[in-house]
Write a structure and sequence with these properties.
This protein is of the alpha/beta class. It has one domain: ABC-type transport auxiliary lipoprotein component (Rossmann fold), CATH 3.40.50. The chain is built from three helices and seven strands. The protein has a five-stranded mixed beta sheet. A two-stranded antiparallel sheet has the order 2-3. The longest helix is centred in the C-terminal third of the chain and has 26 residues. It starts with a strand and ends in a 5-residue tail after the last helix.
Length: 152
């Protein structure tokens, strides 16, 4: 089965910035890491996998088109949660279309990652929690694909 992926404009540059009362401003950039993750994930699932530019038309030789989106990003720092952990929640939307443009899947994927403080510096602990959330999302996407009839 052949698949293509097309990323929305803001996907590769996605970043989240938040000012927490009594804390420094926190910023995390996920776009590039997300793109690498999704490219590796889907290229391991589909034998024939290509990445389309945002302006590219779907080729008739492609069986499905995947369009991922980051719908929401949240995090908490130890001071907020009164724990010794950074936590990250990412909600993705994975839309999959057949080669005629008909929607065959529209999945919300909610992922979670947690990193204890002291493992790295605070910024790296938050980044590690985000990476764990992204890995959680990848596992959930694999499960969704296996449950669906997409590969059949």
């Amino acid at each position: 089965m052949s698949a293509a992926i097309k990323y929305p404009d803001n996907f590769e540059d996605f970043s989240h910035e938040e000012q927490i009362i009594g804390e420094d401003k926190w910023q995390i950039k996920l776009g590039g890491s997300n793109k690498i993750l999704f490219n590796k994930l889907f290229s391991s699932i589909f034998n024939d996998f290509i990445i389309l530019d945002k302006d590219s038309a779907l080729e008739s030789t492609i069986d499905i088109l995947i369009e991922p989106e980051i719908e929401a990003f949240e995090f908490s720092v130890p001071k907020q949660s009164q724990t010794n952990a950074f936590a990250v929640w990412i909600r993705y939307r994975i839309k999959i279309y057949d080669n005629q443009g008909k929607t065959i899947a529209n999945w919300p994927i909610s992922a979670y990652g947690k990193s204890e403080t002291g493992t790295f510096s605070d910024n790296n602990d938050l980044g590690h929690a985000a990476i764990l959330a992204m890995r959680d999302a990848a596992a959930l996407i694999i499960l969704q694909i296996e449950k669906s009839s997409i590969l059949k």
